[in-house]
Structure formats: structure tokens, C-alpha cells
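quick q for whoever's on today - can somebody do inverse folding on this one?? i tried earlier but teh output was garbage lol. C-alpha cells:
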């Protein structure tokens, strides 16, 4: 079983909300860990994340401890950066054993050619952010930000920006843009499964060329996706159990 989860936005909301979200995710992962072959964190794990040379944001140590325990046991964990958490250095890789990917990823998984990306900055998405994304991830402006702003100031500015420009609600334009991108990948490449987050709108759409799954937002709805021998499924954690929201029809092709 391969797990995909995104948009936890750890750091959003009051302390009790954050602790509950983290505890729920840990419980969900532990409930399935005997069957898990790999875990993909599909972006926006944190509401704001800026790692400095010898400093990283505090909090959510229990979740990070689980990641370290899984990688120590040989379970691969991949973290795809989102629009809220792109400023990684080496902490997750060296301390937790997590593979950090800054853009999209193509991988063969359980008979599928899988394309995974957070979903921000797509060609038919928002024009302003599409122009800003390369600048926000370029090493020169990122280094200047880290150098000119002390850690607390840099994180406060990131926190203010998150509150000012992102309310966390699903935008129909973003939902539609991600669907178009998924269909483009399925129709023009050998991809048979597209997995994205970012829209905060959980969905599973199947067609003659393959399947598009959006994990939705863990922070908002506790939704996530799995891929196993039955194919892709969209699931939801509900306290102590898992509800199936959508499964893949049997006729959808695999690689």
C-alpha cells in the first residue's frame, strides 16, 4: 500500500487545532503502518516553513519522530514541496531520512506510471504566482531572505503572508486548473495515475487514459489517498476508523 497525504498546514489555527490535526494524522498512519510500503507527503505539510543553516521551525516533533521511525525501518518517505513549505535545506533528508523533492515526480508504483506534484504554479493556474514561483525558489533571493531577516522575523513575515493571501478554502478556478493539468498529463504522457493536492478539494476522476486523484486537505477534511492492488482510492480518517470516499472502477487501465 502506498499512502498519499497533503495540505496538513501544520501551524495554521490555534494550538489545540494544530495538536488535534497532528494527533489524528499520527493515529491514521499508525493504523495502516503494517501494510504501508511508501508514504508521499504531497506538499503544504506546514503552513509556513523556512529552514536556516542550523535552525528549523519548532513544533510537530511527534509527527517528525514517526517519519524517522518509518525511514529507520526501511519505509521510504517522500516530501514534495508545496507553495507554503518550499524552503528546505537538509534537515528532513539528513535527520529524518526523508527524500525532499522540490517539483514534480514521475515514478512507477504498483503497476502504475505515477505523476505526483503539489499542484501550485501550473501553466493554466494563477498568472502572478506562476511568475513568482521561480523567484521564490531561486537560491539567491532565498539566501538573501535568510541572511537579511533573523529567524523569528523571517517566520513572522511568512506567517503574516500565509494569513493575508490564503484562506484555505477551495477555489473553483484552482480545482478546474488541476483537473485540466491532470488530463493533459494522462493524455500526452505514459502517466496512468496523477496525484495532486493544493486545491483542498478531494476528488477521484477516472477516464480511458487513467486516473486523477486529489488528496484534498488533511487540515480541513482529514482526507488522503492510497494505491494498492485494488487501485487508487480516496479515503477519510474519522476518529478511529477509515471511510472510503471513492474507488477506481475496474476498467481503468494500468501500465
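ok took a stab at it. sequence:
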Amino acid at each position: 500500500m502506498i499512502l498519499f497525504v497533503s495540505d496538513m498546514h501544520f501551524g495554521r489555527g490555534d494550538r489545540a487545532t494544530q495538536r488535534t490535526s497532528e494527533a489524528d494524522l499520527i493515529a491514521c498512519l499508525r493504523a495502516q503502518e503494517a501494510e504501508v510500503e511508501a508514504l508521499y507527503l504531497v506538499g503544504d505539510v506546514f503552513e509556513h516553513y523556512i529552514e536556516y543553516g542550523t535552525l528549523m521551525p519548532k513544533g510537530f516533533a511527534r509527527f517528525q519522530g514517526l517519519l524517522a521511525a518509518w525511514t529507520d525501518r526501511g519505509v521510504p518517505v517522500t516530501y514534495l514541496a508545496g507553495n507554503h513549505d518550499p524552503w528546505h535545506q537538509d534537515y528532513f533528508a539528513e535527520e529524518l531520512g526523508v527524500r525532499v523533492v522540490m517539483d514534480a515526480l514521475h515514478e512507477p508504483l504498483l503497476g502504475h506510471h505515477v505523476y505526483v506534484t503539489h499542484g501550485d504554479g501550473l501553466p493554466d493556474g494563477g498568472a502572478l504566482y506562476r511568475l513568482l514561483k521561480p523567484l521564490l525558489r531561486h537560491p539567491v533571493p532565498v539566501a538573501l531572505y535568510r541572511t537579511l531577516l533573523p529567524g523569528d522575523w523571517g517566520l513572522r513575515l511568512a506567517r503574516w503572508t500565509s494569513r493575508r493571501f490564503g484562506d484555505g478554502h477551495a477555489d473553483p478556478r484552482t480545482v478546474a486548473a488541476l483537473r485540466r493539468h491532470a488530463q493533459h498529463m494522462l493524455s500526452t504522457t505514459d502517466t496512468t495515475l496523477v496525484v495532486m493536492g493544493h486545491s483542498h478539494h478531494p476528488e477521484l476522476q477516472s477516464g480511458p487514459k487513467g486516473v486523477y486523484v486529489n488528496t484534498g486537505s488533511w487540515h480541513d477534511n482529514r482526507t488522503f489517498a492510497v494505491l494498492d492492488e485494488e487501485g487508487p482510492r480516496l479515503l477519510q480518517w474519522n476518529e478511529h476508523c477509515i471511510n472510503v470516499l471513492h474507488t477506481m472502477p475496474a476498467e481503468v487501465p494500468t501500465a
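fwiw The mean pLDDT is 85. also Residues 2-247 form a domain with the Purple Acid Phosphatase; chain A, domain 2 fold (CATH 3.60.21.10). so keep that in mind when u check it
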